[in-house]
Porin
Amino acid sequence: MRLKTLPLLLATGLVMAQGAAKGADAARQAFLQVLDAVDATWFGQPYQGVTAVEVQGTLGIALSGAAVNRKVDQLSQGAVKADSKGGQANLLIKGTYFANGDFKTDMAGDFGHLLYARRGDRGFLYSKEQNAYTTRVDLPPTDAPLTYMAWFRQTLNDIKAVYLDGTVFKPSLGGEEASGGRTLQRIVFNAPTQPWDSKKREQSLAQSLGFWRRGHLVVLVDKATHLPYRMDFRNDEQGVQTRMDFAYGAGNHLEAVNLSNSSRGFEGPGWLRIGYGPNGQMSHVAGELSSNDKRVSFALDLTWSRSLTPAAIAAMPPAGATKRGREELETQLMIGLAGQIFDLQRRGLNLRSVAVGAK
């Protein structure tokens, strides 16, 4: 009897495998259409020939007095009763960035005053507080594009390489649902992670920035326009869990993203708003993430250019500044930055520390 059923079982397994493979291919094709639609409507033609963008704005972190008081109570096990008014750190940013990787950035605020510039393979990082600089800077990418139209496309290609061309994520199609007169198709990507480790307080910068390379992603896509309308992402190991709802305006330009954030240490709502100029280019980007007693916000004005030349970012360290090795200067900067971060952590901001020098 077993010998008779074996061919049937093998055939059934083969059919299921073939069905799963077809489902995966259909999911990949659907997501490829999403990336193409995003490229055409979010970015695309308005940035053709655009080689540079000037950015000016602010970044801020604010903590309520209640958050500080709770942290003091926790650290002292109730022995100390604080009466804090809260704390905040603010940063002013002004910079010019070329699509090919050349840039000049002036940053000033509670973390100090830094000037960072690079043209080709030469540049410097200068600290006003230390009156010191280093000429050892990171090299530009060898495949840097010349325009921002190509830069945006390259960014989407990075996503494609991880979710479609790689073998880490397993894609599939979910069900459909109706919303606002639209039919939305569910696309699912799954790459299991390790569970959250509350004792882990340090990780490499690559791990921190690469949280999106593993996890569970569900995208709801308008079947007519192929644009995403909702995205749910979870990475248990990094403590990241968020939902994003996208809103569009004229010409299917992305105008708003509303976030429902359940990430550890920052449970709460968030938002992103984008304004456009008459030429269809993004002119203002602002956003905020907040919880009951914390808030991170930014507001940036953008001016795009087809005519700026490298002369626009010509710069050199001030006369009299001391030249140092990169490791020495970065160590001093990290000590000062760590002091600010630890102070914010003591005030209630739950961040995992980034390992200095880790890859």
